[in-house]
């Protein structure tokens, strides 16, 4: 039987050589394993099969499809590789130096500028067992420095090169003789180069990593962990990950390198038990004195990756970044803000420093990059005042530079932040209107509705877009909106209807929103906080001729916690506590972070209540409940009836 298996493999090997000689540049093949359910089987028992694909000579523009078959690399993966914040591994300098003294091969290898150059070199000089890993490393090192398009072309040439298959066969053949570090580097480079993860060569290296895992040092473990992070689930990958988790947990006290710890954290992932994440947190906190700026940045993104928020770690990393914010590139700042959003963490000092830094780069970075930051700040409910003012001036100077997507994003951000641009306000709104008018022919009806909704929040009413929105043809298109978007659409139309009725904008023609698109009126589904209600009732008892109304719907649209009326003085006061019907976390979303400035929806509510004759008293839940219980009544009385405070202080002023 063993002889039969040997004969079969020999026949297949000779067939491969025959095909290769006939068309060395046009037909390539890989040994591919079937699904390996029992990872304990020896390498010789892996099920084998041939997968062959004809590749034809074509220009670089058409390489994408064939590269995808061989290398499984897509645009998103190339972009991630290009902008990755984690440093790529490189071979040890001391080892490389010894190799150079022993062999001239590495002198030629270092001068290779592409994977094809490396493969040409292997045709001239056969690499040794240790040099195979260095060849793969040099191939990836040269590739990752290229542009996306050049990467596609070079990877296509690499997979079509006749020496590439031979290099992988030798790697698979001599894997058992490689040093642990070379095995780890070879696996990482093959995966990054796009060698199919189901191929026999990759599966062989995964099995070798499993067999030698207990002998891997900290560096080798880090390399394998970095590789597994980008690999798809399979029997051997999952088995190696499980083994790595056990090794990491056992060797955690011995880890001395911050980057190694972070790679291990990513390997353990979101599924790691909470007690292991706590151990990782304690280990990281014990190493904070070693944190460099990149370490601090990568620790934040790592915590977001594994879904674990450690406030002590976040505070230390944020302070480190705040003190050294200058010079951090766009991509890293972008990932930092995304991580903060995922971790539900905000640091006022760091966000302020980031705002100032981005503002200083406004003439260097593109509009798209600045708008990405504005959008991320909006997600964090942080108003970047300096950046908004600087970018408003840039928009005023050249509104035609805004794309349609840029325009919609800007309208959303500026309307939600409710930031007063003072003397630039009208110029900025006119510039946005100019850009909106230019996109009217190409803008969908729903995009137009959103744009005008944001304009209404800003208190600006451009006539041409409004007229187009309220045309019967546009309204007919909006009547086919999907049910899941219909409540939001009705809400936007109701806001627009109130704005046209209450703000009384100066328009060439009177415009009204048809009732058919307004939907049903809102019903009161909220309740006033019992403690707040009791406090308000106690205050009103002490006031003569004062009427208290709770849970009031104004204009069948705005919910007000309480309305206090004093008929004799002909004054009306409204007590509105943002989000009493919501949880404390949700109520904070009505205000810009770190300020008492109301955001978009609450801001327009206050504006309309003032138009209707109310005197709004606006308090956040956080501000109200931070006052001690014994002083809460006096605090509320001062906010609702400030004339009492003035009358109490007047005699003292006269005595002075």
Briefly, what is this?
The chain has 656 residues and is α+β, with helices and mostly antiparallel strands. 60% of the residues lie in helices and 7% in strands. Helix 7 (129-144) runs parallel beside helix 10.
Task: Describe this structure as you would to a colleague.
This protein has helices spanning 2-22, 63-71, 75-83, 93-102, 105-110, 115-124, 129-144, 148-160, 162-173, 180-193, 200-212, 218-228, 235-251, 258-268, 274-285, 293-306, 311-323, 330-343, 348-360, 367-379, 385-397, 404-417, 425-439, 445-457, 463-469, 472-478, 486-502, 530-541, 584-587, 600-611, 621-625, 629-640, 642-655; strands at 27-33, 48-54, 547-554, 558-566, 571-578, 615-620. A hairpin with a 3-residue loop joins strand 3 (547-554) and strand 4 (558-566). It is built from 33 helices and six strands. With 656 residues, the protein is an alpha+beta fold. Helix content is 60%, strand content 7%. Strands 3-4-5-6 form a four-stranded mixed β-sheet, sandwiched between helices. The protein has a two-stranded antiparallel ribbon with strand order 1-2.
Task: Please outline the helices and strands.
Elements: H1 2-22, E1 27-33, E2 48-54, H2 63-71, H3 75-83, H4 93-102, H5 105-110, H6 115-124, H7 129-144, H8 148-160, H9 162-173, H10 180-193, H11 200-212, H12 218-228, H13 235-251, H14 258-268, H15 274-285, H16 293-306, H17 311-323, H18 330-343, H19 348-360, H20 367-379, H21 385-397, H22 404-417, H23 425-439, H24 445-457, H25 463-469, H26 472-478, H27 486-502, H28 530-541, E3 547-554, E4 558-566, E5 571-578, H29 584-587, H30 600-611, E6 615-620, H31 621-625, H32 629-640, H33 642-655
Parallel strand pairs: 5-6
Antiparallel strand pairs: 1-2, 3-4, 4-5
